Amino acid sequence: MATVDLLVITTGVAVTSLALLFDYTNGFNDSGSIVAAMISSGAMSLRQALVMAACFEFVGAYFLGTAVAEMIGKGIVELATLTAAAIAAALVGAIAWNYMAWYLGLPASSSHALIGGLLGASLMASGTRTVYWWNVSAVYLVLIISPLIGFAISYVLTKAHLFLFQRVPPSQANRAFNRLQVFSSVALALSHGTNDAQKTMAIITMVLTLLYPLAPATVAPFYTPTGSDAFAIPRWVTVTCASVLSLGVATGGLRILRTLGTGFYRIRPLHGFTSLSSAAAVIYGASLLGFPVSTTQISSSSILGAGAAQRVNAVRWGTVAHMVAAWIVTIPASAIVAAACEPLLSRLIPVGP
Fold it and tell me: What pLDDT digit, counting tens, does each position of 199-226 carry?
C-alpha cells in the first residue's frame, strides 16, 4: 500500500472517530434537555424516557432531511481551504467544551461549540478570508433568537392552557398532560435527531470530500463525489451518526438533567407538555430552514417560559444567569481551544488539499 493511501486511511479513521465522539457527547449532553421536563413532572421514569427518546432520535436523524448538514458543510467556512487537521482541531474544541459543560452540569450548546471550533480552527489555518461571515452571522442570529422564540411560545401556550383548564380538577388535568407529554417528547426527540445528527454527518462528509482527491481508489468505497453541487451524505454516515447520537441520548447526562429538572422550579405536567411542544416546534422549524440550533438552549428557555407563565417568582433566576453565562462563553471558548490545537494537529495529520 502506498504511503499516501496509508496516510489517507489513518487520517480518515482518526477524524471520523473524533466526529463520532463529538456526536456521542452531543447526545449525552442534550438528553437531559429532551427528557428533563417529562421525568420531573412524573410522566415517565428515567429509563423509559431515555429509551423512548433514543429510538425517535434515530428516526429523526435518518428520515427527516439534510438541510442542516448542507449549511454546516458548505455555509460556514470554505471547504476547499480546510485541512483534515483543522477539522480535527474544531472537533477537539467542541468536545472539550461539551465535557466541561457536562462536568459543571451546565446546559450548554453543542451547536455553538462546533461552530466556534470550526471558526477557531479555520481562522488559525487560513485566516479570515475562508469564513462565510454573512452565513455565520445569520446562523449566530438564529442561535440567539431561537431560545427567545421558545420562551415566548411556551409562555403563551402555558397561559392559554392555564385559562382553558382553570375549572378542571388538578388531578384530572395532570393525568391528561402526562399523556400528552409522551407525544410532545416524541416530537422533540424527532426534531433533535433531525437537527443535531446532521452536524456530525456534515463533518464526516467534509473530511471524506477533502481526502477523496488524494486517494480516489482508497476513499471510493466510503465516498464518491456525485458531480453535482449537492452536499451528498453517504448512507453509512447517516446510519452511523444517527446510531451514535441515539446511544449518547440513551446513556444520558444526569448532571444536566438535574439542572433542568429541578434547578429552575418545580415542573408540573402542564409545564412539561407546553415546554416540550414549544421546543419541538422551534427546533424542527429551524431544521427545515437549514439552521443549526441548540436543543439545550431552546428546551431550557421553553421550560423557563412555562414556569414564568404561571409565576415569575417561582423561577430560580440565579441558576438561569449561570446558564446564560455558559451560552455566551461557548463559541469563544471552543474557538480558542480549536485554534490552539490546530498547529499541533497539522504536524500530526500532514494531509490536506
Answer: 899 899 989 988 888 888 888 888 888 7
